[in-house]
Amino acid sequence: MDQDLKTELSKHGIFATSFEELYNWGRKNSVWPLTFGLACCAIEMIATTMARYDLARFGAEVFRPSPRQADLMIVSGTVTKKMAPQVVRLYNQMPEPKYVIAMGACAISGGPFRDGYNVLKGIDRYIPVDVHIPGCPPRPEALIHAFMTLQDKISAQHLTGESRPRHLKQDLPSEFPVPEFGEHGLEPQQNDEVFRNPLKVLQG
Amino acid sequence: MTLEEIRSRLEAFVPGCHAEIVVNGSPSAQNSLLIDRRHGLQTAMYLRDHPELQLDFCSNVTAVDWPDREETETIKTRKIVDGVEKEVEETKKTTIPGYLEVVYHLFSIAKKEGPVVLRMHTANRTDDVTLQSLTPVWRSAEFQEREAFDLFGIVFEGHPDLRRILMWEGFTDHPMRKDYVPPPDDDLELLAVSKPGA
Q1: What is the value of ipTM here, to two decimals?
Q2: Does residue B94 form part of some domain?
Q3: What span, in angstroms and rounded, lies between the C-alpha atoms of A189 and A84?
Q4: Given A17, B26, B56, B65, which is the most exposed site by the fewest CB atoms within 10 A?
Q5: Is B18 inside any structural domain?
Q6: Mutation target vs B (from A117, A184, A194; most B CBs, 10 A cutoff)
Q7: What is the count of structural domains for chain B?
Q8: Per residue in A140-166, pLDDT tens?
Q9: A197 — contact with chain B (CB < 8 Å)?
């Protein structure tokens, strides 16, 4: 529907919308995150939900203790190689549609611990990440900004057509392989279905 | 009791024990006792049970990797070169074999004294990496000896439950050793920027 016509109609007290807009409006204002924290970023995430920053204003105050009831995974903190399989498993247990915010330097790249033998160099190696936030740790405002970015992303999703999101495409996976503990590290080292391999990006 | 007194008592009362003082040159001057690896357990029992020492608490166990190192010496010798005597410099290289070292920090809660720092060396850092476990003497050493086993590969004889504690079962490396290298394709981003035009 034409935006100008909608504005014109609303001036006359007529509210017009599409089912898609209504549906996405409902979805974006009831994103329930998973109660799940890995390190110091989790403290900042908790602060974001409390009275001072009040994530409840965005409809995301109900942190769910079960992945079965959660829509959003906030990967808040360093993902060690020993923890990575559990993070992927939790993601797999969440029902579609599901979203991931990688919060902080560690979750997006390994951060200050990147050179450690025990640290995963970014959770996007195994699961698709919707919003990355840098920071060590990011301030609550940054997490709120990431959350609003995610809301914009949700409201821009089309329910039909080729550009519809993953959860509406039957043939696309909603679960991703859980890495296994190998002799020298995780096997495989990344999931090439999800990860933008920098070597391949450079090769074009 | 000073460290020197402890050392001479150990040599007197623990049969066959050889102990030497490792001097710490820093302002803290926290010297330590290097015990030969065959008498670790006996030494520990003595230190814990002696009424004047009563080192009843082991606060910390850690390890150090000393890799093989090369020392070069230059020796000046006189040699006859083409019928003329000349002073020639020769460099001599000697390889000093490395070892793994384990460090224990002991305190006496009864005497309010400490720390007494114990060190022990393995024979080398490849095939003979066994040391006596001190967990039977101080229970608090259990997890920290497991950590030294996990990250440095020191095998503690007499440990009740010697398994990896931080890395997973099936991991074969010892990441805190000086010569540890992570898998080459672990850091793909670094690989991408360090290989221009790849």
Answers
A1: 0.78
A2: no
A3: 11
A4: B26
A5: yes
A6: A117
A7: 1
A8: 999 999 999 999 999 999 988 888 888
A9: yes
